[in-house]
Amino acid sequence: MSAKLIKGTEVREEILEEISAEVAQIKEKHGIVPGLVTILVGENPASISYVTLKIKTANQLGFKEIQDSQSEDISEEDLLALIDKYNKDDSIHGILVQLPLPKHINEKKVLNTIDPDKDVDGFHPVNVGRLMIGGSEVRFPPCTPAGIQELIVRSGIDTSGAEVVVVGRSNIVGKPIANMMLQKADGANSTVTVVHTRTKDLASHCKRADILIVAAGVPDLVKPEWIKPGACVIDVGVNRVGEKISEKTGKKIAILKGDVDFDKAKEIAGFITPVPGGVGPMTITMLMKNTLKSLKFKLGIA
Ligand code: NAD
Predict the structure, then answer these.
(1) Residue 47's pLDDT band (boundaries 50, 70, 90)?
(2) 180-218 confidence digits (pLDDT tens)
């Protein structure tokens, strides 16, 4: 058996088209577009490349986009004041502070200063609480888990009553996706198990999963014999396992591997995400969706 590939690159295009159409409609009716500010502190190359991609996507969708680059030695006080300025700016609906921040800045303090109604990353404790309560309380589901849920739902997989096993309990992937899948809601209603480094028998839990979501950051952690035949396997892991020369650019690029032994797993699973090209492209897409949602909340049309 060969699994159906869940291609994040294709689902991304589908969602971006939907966002684009809504942005045009809102612009015509209300004369406003979603506004997103990306605050980048310092010159970390990985952060620059993430931010560049975010800006490109926001521009492509017709958002108002501000890239606010600050030097590595900005004081915590000045950074908090900058966030406060955007909190008060009516043309800005989403504020994103690119992590990691330099060591002299308290990351928690910075994230907690963002107005929860502009926290399109969904990391503010208020939004974590709203997600936990579920239903109409939810404003901004964190982007990677929201992308995972979209991939599952748009692949036509029935989540109601499904055994979902999540490998990993981080605040940005494992815990929120587990919480989202157990809610009494469409695309959820699942029976959820979360496994982690202290779990006694990882294999026995994974083998029960109708939907297996793996976010551990360990290459090939999930063995093919742990996969239930026909299961949906969502591999969130992005592990750099070496370097190669790109055929396109002739430059050195990282060789990426997921947390699942893809080549063997695809012969057993019913659905599987590749790495790269699975969950990865969904994160920025969902950030755009949250920014649009923020504007819709403000206009009272969400
Ligand atoms: P993390 O390190 O914060 O958390 C990993 C979790 O996995 C921990 O809770 C840990 O208990 C669990 N874990 C680790 N090793 C394990 C093992 N051997 N057995 C059982 N559990 C184990 O990582 P994270 O931020 O949640 O990210 C996980 C992976 O997902 C990473 O590879 C990361 O790069 C990737 N990621 C991808 C995207 C994306 O594609 N957009 C976004 C976020 C994270």
Answers:
(1) very high
(2) 999 999 999 999 999 999 999 999 999 999 999 999 999
Interval 193-203: pLDDT, tens: 999 999 999 99
Strand order in the sheet with 35-41: 64-70, 35-41, 94-97
Ligand 1 centroid – CA 237 distance (Å): 6
Give, using CA atoms, the residue closest to atom 19 of ligand 1: 197
Judging by beta carbons within 10 Å of its beta carbon (0-12, 13-18, 19+), is residue 277 exposed, middle or buried?
middle
Q: Is the CB of 194 under 6 A from ligand 1?
A: no
- CB-based contact 196:234 (threshold 8 Å): no
Residues in CB range of 200: below 8 A, 6 or more apart:
none
Nearest C-alpha to atom 3 of ligand 1 is from which residue? 170
Q: Which atom of ligand 1 sits closest to the CA of residue 283?
A: 41
Confidence of residue 1 (pLDDT cuts 50, 70, 90): low
Indicate yes or no: pTM above 0.90: yes
**Whether the Cβ atoms of residue 282 and residue 10 lie closer than 8 Å to each other:** no
Q: How far is the CA of 253 from the centre of ligand 1 (A)?
A: 22
Rounded to the nearest whole angstrom, what is the distance from the C-alpha of residue 215 to the centroid of ligand 1?
4
Choose, from 118, 119, 121, 257, the residue flagged as catalytic.
121
